[in-house]
Amino acid sequence: MAGRRDWTRETLAAGVRGGDRRALARAITLVENRDPLAYEVVADLYPETGGAYAVGLTGPPGVGKSSLVSALVRHVRERDTSVGVVSVDPSSPFSQGALLGDRIRLSDHFLDPGVFIRSMGTRGHLGGLAEATLQALLVLDAAGKELVLLETVGTGQSEVEIVGIADTVLLVLMPGSGDSVQALKAGIMEIPDVIAINKMDHPAAKTMLSEVRSILALGPGAEDDGWRQPIVLTEAVRGEGVAELWEQIEAHRAYLEESGRLEERRRRNLAREVFSLASGRAKQHLEQAVADDPELRRLLDEVQRRELDPLSAVREILEKVFRIGDGDGTRAS
Ligand SMILES: Nc1nc2c(ncn2[C@@H]2O[C@H](COP(=O)(O)OP(=O)(O)OP(=O)(O)O)[C@@H](O)[C@H]2O)c(=O)[nH]1
Ligand SMILES: [Mg+2]
């Protein structure tokens, strides 16, 4: 395998532009490792991105997300659409580990030059994964992939953050995903653009369908916005419902494009992404600073001993770490 030193900023950017698989693989590894070269290459490529359509798949463990990804890839490859897949597995400490599970289901496509598949495991925390996912998407976009599928497990806010950069967010459920239905109901999870209920051959699939339907019907202004979230029943292994699922994804895309909302959504997504990554880094910086600085830790002790009030400690910390003068945050803006 090519080493780090075989690539320069120029050759790597050129390799990615040309869709070279080795260059793509290397660039995404560098992205995962937060290598400075990755930042440079993505910075060079960024003006050329925006051509790929990104679909994020999220949902509880084992509902069939990877199987659906595989089925969708098969479906769009029949029309020669080039595809990139980034499968994010926050529970797996190593990307190799994450690969193993998905490799089995996605391996059908490994020999297809029009498909590039990559799994990323966690490097530390979810904030790092959101960053790596965004960067990997940009790399695949610059490589000319027309469609990029982002898969991540979970239905919590942080997982949604990982796929939040996508143009269309698909929530995958299966009969028995009661917790996710509760999360939808409670508004913990944002309403996705499209919902797939996979493993439709399960006897409880119909119950699940009507449950999800009733939640969407109650949902705040789903229709006000002009898009009614479709629910599609699928059987990923046999490929049932996959054509319809793809049709609904395309319908959502058409809706966004025709209404001018795609541009708007991308602008909003990018702004949110920048803000959230910056916040994440600021938080890391803060945690590190407190860990490294006995004086800052003493402030925390003082608060715990009730010698210093919490907001005075906040003010001192912000002043010291970020040189933010007025940290009381109470001024009207
Ligand atoms: N009966 C049935 N089994 C399915 C279906 N889709 C997936 N499976 C099986 O369910 C298991 C999990 O599928 P995956 O595609 O790995 O699910 P996933 O959501 O990607 O799982 P994680 O990434 O680990 O969260 C596998 O054994 C699949 O073969 C389906 O539609 N029907
Ligand atoms: Mg999976």
Describe the structure.
The structure is a single chain. The chain has 333 residues and is of the alpha/beta class. Helix content is 53%, strand content 12%. It contains 13 helices and seven strands. A seven-stranded parallel sheet has the order 3-2-4-1-5-6-7, sandwiched between helices. Helix 9 (205-218) links the parallel strand 6 (194-197) and strand 7 (231-233). The longest helix is centred in the last third of the chain and has 32 residues, at 261-292. Guanosine-5'-triphosphate binds at residues 61-67, 101, 105, 153, 198-199, 235-237.
Alpha carbon gyration radius: 22 Å
What summary fits the major beta sheet? 7 strands, parallel
Low-confidence stretches: 94-100
List the helices and strands in order: HHHEHEHEHEHEHEHEHHHH
Q: Give the quaternary arrangement of the chains.
A: single chain
- The overall pLDDT average reads 87
Q: How many individual β-strands?
A: 7
Structural class by SSE content: alpha/beta
The separation of the N and C termini measures: 54 Å
Shape: globular
Sequence-ordered SSE layout with sheet pairings:
Elements: H1 9-17, H2 21-32, H3 36-45, E1 53-59, H4 65-77, E2 83-89, H5 95-106, E3 115-121, H6 126-142, E4 147-153, H7 157-163, E5 168-173, H8 178-186, E6 194-197, H9 205-218, E7 231-233, H10 242-258, H11 261-292, H12 294-304, H13 310-322
Parallel strand pairs: 1-4, 1-5, 2-3, 2-4, 5-6, 6-7
Magnesium ion binds at residues 65-66, 87, 102, 151.
